[in-house]
Amino acid sequence: MAAMLRYRFDEFILSPRRRMLLRNGREQPLIPRYFDLLVFLVERRSEAVHRRDIFDRVWSDVVVSDSALSQAIRTIRRVLGDDSRAPRFVRTVSRHGYRFVFEDVGEEVDDGEWQVAADAVPLRAAPPPGAATDSFESLLQRVTDVATNPAEEEEQREAAELLHGLGTSDALKRLGTRPRHAFARALLRDSRWDVAEAGPVPIFGQPSLIAVAYELVSLRLRRAAAVASTRWAGAAIGGGLAGAFAGAAGALILMATPASAASFALVPVLAGVGGCCGAAGGAGVGAGLSAAESIARSFRAIALIGGGAFGGGLVGTAAQWFGRWTLAALVGIHLNTGGGVEGLVIGGAAGLGYSLATSRADGLAAPRGRRRLGVAGATAAACGLAALGLTLAGWPLVGGTIHAIAQASAGSQAALTPLARLVGEPDFGPLTAALIGTGEGALFGFGLTLGLTRRP
Questions:
Q1: Measured between alpha carbons, how far is 31 from 218 in angstroms, rounded to an integer?
Q2: How far apart, in whole angstroms, are the C-alpha atoms of residue 50 and residue 269?
Q3: Residues 388 and 431 sit within 8 Å (Cβ to Cβ)
Q4: With the CA atoms of 85, 87, 91 and 93 taken in that order, what torsion angle do they form, in degrees rounded to the nearest 10?
């Protein structure tokens, strides 16, 4: 096994083995992903590293925007005392990525003892050049200003990070309730996840709770909007494909069942119905999960369950009433079709399974390979169990609803009675409903998750 190396450059020691960055014997805190990025750049210092390679290496299990990488580089530069205008360590390579440019980097085997300074404490971030004697005040002024363009928004975020470096609790005390304090508190709350030495930024029990929560949600949604919308679309496609597969498979099995009057025409019909229902459900649940994952850094599981339940319930209720009105208006059939409760329960179950399977993610989870299949399987199991509970409680899913419509329509080929006889029931009963419903729920959860976690 190859020995691990540590790197010496200027007044720094970088130890991947101990996951420490020291400056003159004093540890410089970095959050884990930023530390990994610095190591990656130092390891590949002979070349300019493309953004895509950085995302694949450092953010391999989550999806982030380019702004997250820019923020990471900004933080690394601040810790190293670097300047983007005249870089000594990290240079931006236009339209490509970044390169570690400090030439005198020493490598040594990291298997011996080396000491951290006895009085080692993290060095506080230096105030920006030209700052007033009261460093807090100039930074607080910046975070309470109104940003008019993306560059100013990034400057505000940098100011928030510097305030954390100076002292989070002191910054909050000085912020008080001055104009736009709610936005500034939300920005400090959001940026604390990217500054290793940041302290807590409480919301409950503090001034303007609702305003701060609104600003925080708005801030996170704006930063994640593009990525979240892509995931929402992927979830809708995944749910639609799963529904189409379930519908087509059900029709083919029904055709092959003795005493069934189903013809091949039923295959595209049920595939279309299943695809539309799955796509609508995937869009609702996927939107809820994407929004919750973008907003919540604390209480992630609760947010995902709530987001999935809300999105599923909303779409399910809309589909329920539209289906009832359509049947009554077009063919004169009056059925109490379901949708709202089913969407809420299965959406919440999807959020539960997904949150448990991605509990270590610190952003929009995007696992790969077997890990991705494992997350999809966990979500499928949760949705399948939820569907089983619904059918046992008398709440039919798509298959049960189709059977009810077929029973109320003369000459329909979609009645599922022949399938019931395959499992020993004389008619469509609890066992048949449970088997079909569980399969529907599991397929939906599987397709939804594969679509949701697809990397752009």
A1: 24
A2: 47
A3: no
A4: 40
Q: How far apart are CA 11 and CA 439, in angstroms?
A: 61
Sort 244 into a burial class: Cβ within 10 Å, 0-12 / 13-18 / 19+: buried
**Is there a domain that residue 217 lies in?**
no
In angstroms, the Cα distances linking 358 to 31, 201, 207, 309 are 19, 25, 33, 18
Residues 162 and 257 in one domain: no
Amino acid at 82: D
Residue 255 burial by CB count (10 A; 0-12/13-18/19+): exposed, middle or buried?
middle
Q: Is 100 helix (H, G, I), strand (E, B) or coil?
A: strand
Q: Clarify whether residues 251 and 319 are in a common domain.
A: yes
| Interhelix angle 369-392/340-357, nearest 10 degrees | 150
Sequence letter at residue 160: A
Distance of alpha carbon 39 from alpha carbon 392, whole angstroms: 54
> Which tens digit of pLDDT belongs to each residue from 57-78?
999 999 888 888 999 999 999 9
Do 260 and 418 form a contact (C-beta atoms < 8 A)?
Answer: yes
Query: What b-and-e string marks burial along 421-452, b requiring 16 or more CB atoms within 10 Å of the CB?
Result: beeeeeebeeebbbbbbbbbbbbbbbbbbbbb
pLDDT of residue 2: 66
Q: pTM of the full predicted structure? A: 0.86
Q: What is the pLDDT of residue 168?
A: 95
pLDDT reported for residue 132:
42
Rounded-to-integer distance, Cα 340 and Cα 346, Å? 10
pLDDT tens, residue by residue, 133-191: 478 999 999 999 999 998 899 999 999 999 999 999 999 999 999 999 999 999 999 99
Residues (pLDDT < 50) of the chain are 120-128, 130-133
Cα–Cα distance list, 98 to 12, 46, 52 (Å):
20, 11, 11
Whether 128 maps to a domain, the answer reads no
Give the three-state DSSP class for 28: coil
Please write down the long-range contacts of 207-215, taking CB distance under 8 Å and 24 or more positions apart: 207/177, 207/181, 207/182, 208/177, 208/181, 208/182, 211/182, 212/182, 212/185, 212/186, 213/186, 214/182, 215/182, 215/183, 215/185, 215/186, 215/187
Domain boundary among the residues 146, 178, 207 is at 207
Residues 92 and 228 reside in one and the same domain: no
